[in-house]
Amino acid sequence: MKQFISTVFLMVFSQLAIAGHHEGGLKLEQRQAPAVLGVTSVTLGEVTTINAMGDMGEYGRVYVTYNLTQNSPTSGTVTGEGRGVQNNEIVFGSFSGY
């Protein structure tokens, strides 16, 4: 539970810290080569879940889940998590967006 609360605090704090600093603009840089994942399943409902897998360079074999929620006809939210397996090591992460 402590880890969850810490994660939520960091997400909120980082958004507040960034909110007032648009002068320099957001500069995104590609960190790795593009990867193509194959969709393995789709579950439709109030929350649509898409599962996919594929090979992703240094992360090895990757498995990812996207949970999509529609807030209005033109917007929604996405949450999910991914796991990569290579050389008997597992890396994982979660994400969210609007």
Note down, in words, how this protein is organized.
Strand 4 and strand 5 form a beta hairpin. 18% of the residues lie in helices and 49% in strands. It contains one helix and five strands; from the N terminus they run αβββββ. The chain has a five-stranded antiparallel β-sheet with strand order 1-2-3-4-5, with no helix packed on it. It has a domain at 34-98. The longest helix is centred in the first third of the chain and has 18 residues, at 2-19.
User: What portion of the residues fall into strands of 2 or more residues?
Assistant: over 45%
Q: How much helix, percentage-wise, in residues?
A: 10-25%
Major sheet size, sense and barrel closure: 5 strands, antiparallel
What's the SSE pattern? HEEEEE
Low-confidence sequence ranges: 1-14
Any idea what the radius of gyration is? 16 Å
Indicate the structural class.
alpha+beta
Number of helices: 1
What is the 3D form?
A: flat
Q: What is the strand arrangement across the widest sheet? A: 1-2-3-4-5
Number of strands: 5
Q: What is the residue-mean pLDDT, rounded to a whole number?
A: 81
Q: Give the terminus-to-terminus CA distance.
A: 24 Å
Précis, in short:
With 98 residues, the chain is of the alpha+beta class. Helices cover 18% and strands 49% of the residues.
How are the SSEs ordered, and which strands pair?
Blueprint: H1 2-19, E1 38-43, E2 47-55, E3 61-72, E4 75-86, E5 89-97
Antiparallel strand pairs: 1-2, 2-3, 3-4, 4-5
